[in-house]
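Reader question, answered in our methods column.
A reader sent in the components of a multi-part assembly and asked whether the whole thing could be modeled at once rather than chain by chain. We filled in our standard form and ran it. Here is what they sent:
COMPLEX SIZE: two components
ENTRIES:
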Amino acid sequence: MAQGEALVIFTPSGKRGLVPVGTPVLDAARRLGVDLDSVCGGRGICSKCQCTPAYGSFPKHGVTVAEGALSPMNAVERRYDEKRGLKPGRRLGCQAQILADVVIDVPPESQLHRQVVRKAAEARAVEMDPATRLVMVEVAEPDMHAPSGDLERLNAALGAQWDVAPATAPLAVLAGLQQALRKGGWQVTVALHQGHSDAAPCLVDVWPGFFEGPLFGLAIDLGSTTIAAHLTDLTTGEVRASAGVMNPQIRFGEDLMSRVSYAMMNPGGAADMTAAVRAALNDLAHGLAAEAGVEPRAIVEAVLVCNPVMHHLALGIDPVELGQAPFALATSDAVEIAAADLGLVSINPAARAYVLPMIAGHVGADAAAVALSEAPEQSDDLVLIVDVGTNAEIILGNRARVLACSSPTGPAFEGAQISAGQRAAPGAIERVRIDPATKEPRFRVIGCDLWSDEPGFAEAVGAGGVTGICGSGIIEAVAEMRMAGLIDASGLVGSAAATGSARVVPEGRTHSYVLHDARASGGPLIAVTQGDIRAIQLAKSALYAGARLLMDRIGVDRVDRVVLAGAFGAHVSPLHAMVLGMIPDVPLDHVRSAGNAAGTGARIALCSRAARRLIEMNVRRIEKVETAIEPRFQEHFVAANALPHAVDPFAELARVAPLPVVDFGAGAADGTRRRRRRS
Amino acid sequence: MAQGEALVIFTPSGKRGLVPVGTPVLDAARRLGVDLDSVCGGRGICSKCQCTPAYGSFPKHGVTVAEGALSPMNAVERRYDEKRGLKPGRRLGCQAQILADVVIDVPPESQLHRQVVRKAAEARAVEMDPATRLVMVEVAEPDMHAPSGDLERLNAALGAQWDVAPATAPLAVLAGLQQALRKGGWQVTVALHQGHSDAAPCLVDVWPGFFEGPLFGLAIDLGSTTIAAHLTDLTTGEVRASAGVMNPQIRFGEDLMSRVSYAMMNPGGAADMTAAVRAALNDLAHGLAAEAGVEPRAIVEAVLVCNPVMHHLALGIDPVELGQAPFALATSDAVEIAAADLGLVSINPAARAYVLPMIAGHVGADAAAVALSEAPEQSDDLVLIVDVGTNAEIILGNRARVLACSSPTGPAFEGAQISAGQRAAPGAIERVRIDPATKEPRFRVIGCDLWSDEPGFAEAVGAGGVTGICGSGIIEAVAEMRMAGLIDASGLVGSAAATGSARVVPEGRTHSYVLHDARASGGPLIAVTQGDIRAIQLAKSALYAGARLLMDRIGVDRVDRVVLAGAFGAHVSPLHAMVLGMIPDVPLDHVRSAGNAAGTGARIALCSRAARRLIEMNVRRIEKVETAIEPRFQEHFVAANALPHAVDPFAELARVAPLPVVDFGAGAADGTRRRRRRS
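And here is the structure of the entire assembly that came back:
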């Protein structure tokens, strides 16, 4: 050790080195590449560089730290401590100087690139590295003898103080620059956007003096039916508020193809749908900011994930090409634009937006977001990920290869096209159990913790009563009917005589199963009809056929595990999904719900530029399978119509839930088909 | 020469080389770096690669060219010749193959980087190299088995066929891409903007199939008083149409400082002025397109030059900082933005705009444009360039160094603040001569070729009659009054008695000189008042003092030549300007008018990316002088009040126009001053 040098060891990184005595801790950290945050650039203002010196003997590090290893608290630190309070033992890294050998702990909140711990063990941890961050700079005052613009001097300061390339400034930011510089006494805090590409950084906003933040971003999952957004703290990665609204495009068409048709049939139709969705996005952003008490100006980024049709409509592109082979996207790469171009004008006017890349004409940025969140390319075993919405995105893969496709399940899984179907809202039946012996049902509704056969249920449900059946409810109902022998493997509902249940009532030439009859008190009759079961069969066949197609490609008959993504995935019971044959047969404990994985992927991309780079690279590697032109899709689709399947054995399922062998004949089914032909 | 090779020599470049027999001329040109244009990329569509083979013996080149050195006209050429007509001897370079040694002449219109010959011998020639150009590409069709976006395949084609980096596409362009590709059978012509910086190229528009163009750009000179724009062909550099309008900001304040005051005193005032000027720019663009019969969509670029206050207001920046020392600009570098951001929405919606860099807080992009046009940094002798508008920009320099300043001349030189002043429009007196013996005036008015003392003048002027006096008219009038002995060196008008002219009439305690009296027929009385002369004296003193300040810096008492820029410079007579002492004393034939040099600079920047690079580099090198803080400015200003000057000898002027020595005493002048104090 040279004279006048001291050894500094940072924990938890373990980075160590010699620095001249008198070096501020922040400088030492920067020199040694230690991740210690700072917004004010060492002016003792932001306190982001707080750290804790450790005293005593550290055999592990081979060092003993004496009291006095750091300089005593100086005036800046004492003032900060008085005004805002330093935690015991904490020091400001920019003020405390290293006087002798020392061990310094950097707490998580002082790490710029802190890890955001994900809940699920399988998923990767995310390191905070958002595209937009706050930095404080001191700008040279104008000099008439060497005239230059305020922006040019700000850029010189950013270069000198933060090693940042010259930033561009949108006109709106430029318009506020001069006042901010003067109000801040030539010190300003800027929100600096540095994308993950080579493009020049961009000023998103400028505040006079020190602006503490935090900055926020919106992670938006734009679905055909619902739009969900998460207001996310860009420092911690925490979600401050979440909200969802119906996609107002529903009035133009229930599913994707009907919206594409609307665009084809109506001049200006695409533009109308674009305007509708943009207005909804903006309202959502506005509402989230209000709900969380966040200044809209602090929301400086948005990340959008969505399927291809939503993508095109949000970007103002007519989706007509997506309605027919070869399903050509206008653009498939990630899109980086001004958030205002997406209609997001209720947040910072210079906020940036990032739209994840597309995988294929039917497999969108939402699937890319799921892939980003679930990381199949890092899985040792073969994982099948299904994200069920109006369209199902299906990803199959492991470290060797990853495949993806999309399958048109339609909205039945969301409670649409179901006779008593409704959205998942209070009053909707979400859980169903049918006693195999008595064939009597019991159920739970959203907003009530009691089962329908428990005392006090009617009071607990309240005046609204039981209103209908939602997606997870209809799936459980059909699966329970199959398990109770009320329907056969072909999906036919047996008559009251054949099933021995008075709950089965005739409806034309088919039968329905009554779950709940409140007609006596002016309420609804909620029954599962033969038509409902056919709708579920069509949807689940499409889903299963897509998964099988990917398995064919890899040449396997089974997968190791299944991940159910989507809000739907969070509510559907793996057992019931498997009874219906929605997913391939695996041990039940190998089925996991990933929650809203697309939304999670959007949040990851919001928090991490590295993640954006990663998914842009990965989508190119994903093998795309187009279900619409695969001859075997139809074959798989037909075979998957049976419950659970006409051919595939479902041995794992049989082990936990043997299904009764019943057959209600073809007569009623024929009748159904004949009626359909006439209608 | 290897077997199977032929020698090809291109004229006028003289570039030569061996190519395999059968090589198309266009390919040979590209291989040898010969400037041969092509938009369609060799498809025989655009005919931009036309060239003329020369036959016979060429001792200079050491080659004899036989008939048959090029392949015979093929079907593509014959079809083109039939449909559109090839000039005799011409061939399509992409079709004609080199079969034996040949000399090929590339006519100017087939050169992509053709030189635009400037009128003035001193100015540099400009090589066409606009930022936006047309290229035709053949794009791969979408493939469901390897899905990618239309934009990504277009970019791949641009890279393969034109060696262009991947281009970004504004949403508006993206929205039209798919239809254009399909309508054009996967061939499209794109307007590709490649700035002079490292930024990625950008698609400005896409046309199905082959779009011949030409593309156009707007060169805009945004002055405090007038806005002039030139619609320029981006292939040839020719101006297709020009137009000018009044700057509507005049209603907020006559000169720059009054507009800055308006912004300071009125909340929203700056925004109102921004909206006004943007609307005017847009109307001007719209009108020019209509006048020239040019489709607005073909106008893909705009270059803006203006002074700093106009610059800030056009960009939507409050100019308040420009109203007070240290005159800090919000930004001084060149600005490259969407033209729509400047309110130019009547041209191509994705058109780009380039605003030249600023020199200093008082010396704007207009002065930079003058420097670009006049190139003082390439001058062997010391040149003084003055661009006279409401503010005068003054540049002095040679190869060694270049200096610049701005001086607040006010609008008197433009006919404002003059009792009978008016804009340069039909009916305005623009030329004045006064007989030194009789003191009788004669004059010419705009819109009439006759002098006022020629027969038929009244009829020729027509019903509108003589309406006032414009900028060049008032300068000539005052200079002629000085030469005729009607005013003395201090600017005082002598009485009728003292001058012996009945045209001098008293006005209060001062005198006026009547140029034209049409009161008998209900017309105006047009006289030059003492106040008019004082206004001209203030203006010319400011101009001269600015020039002297720059001369001080270099340490010279005289300059070698003077260039008068601006519309004003085109109309003012050098002799009269020198009698007034507006400009330093040089031989009269060393004074040249450069016309609208700022507008020319804008056109050069529109046509040449190299010119943009050059001026951005040069403005950094120009030494800036701030007249407002130079102590000697006031001293120079006072000394310059006399006509021509109190101290400087003006020996060259004396040689061609000796001025009478008269002195009309101080009484009247004092009276004027006293009256002013009371008002």
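What stands out: Residues 530-554 of chain B form the longest helix (25 residues). The first strand of chain B starts at residue 5 and ends at 11.
Send us your own complexes using the same form.
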